[in-house]
Specification:
mainly alpha, 4 helices, single chain
């Protein structure tokens, strides 16, 4: 998936989840839709920056990042005595939209160069 289509998918799913959240607080679909969104989308907006190369690994990394973001948002709200599910959704939606707005690597693994595969080098003066 191209970076632009990936970003549009993240933004569209965030908008869809926002409609479900705002439309009817007692709707039976609210819990499964928002739970699925919260476990996948915020982290998936940032996971491509890891450049894992495999879609499955990127999805798993996105779920792990989402769980960490959920824990950080919940911990912050609990410590500030400002618990609000709507506030948590707004924060996570903002994080997801920021990731979609500034895509930084949805292209996958680093590409090979003419000199061979790209390798990470420690910071410091160049040896070339």
């Amino acid at each position: 998936m191209t970076t632009r289509r990936f970003s549009l998918a993240i933004a569209a799913s965030t908008l869809a989840a926002a409609v479900v959240v705002v439309a009817d607080p007692g709707a039976p679909l609210r819990v499964p839709v928002v739970l699925a969104w919260a476990l996948i989308v915020p982290g998936l907006a940032w996971a491509p920056r890891l450049r894992l190369g495999d879609a499955g690994d990127t999805l798993i990394a996105g779920v792990v990042i989402s769980i960490c973001l959920l824990a950080a948002a919940a911990e912050t709200m609990a410590l500030l005595a400002a618990w609000s599910p709507m506030r948590a959704f707004v924060v996570l939606a903002g994080v997801a939209l920021l990731g979609a707005l500034f895509p930084g690597g949805a292209g996958g693994a680093p590409r090979d160069t003419a000199d061979g595969p790209r390798r990470l080098r420690p910071p410091g003066p160049s040896t070339r």
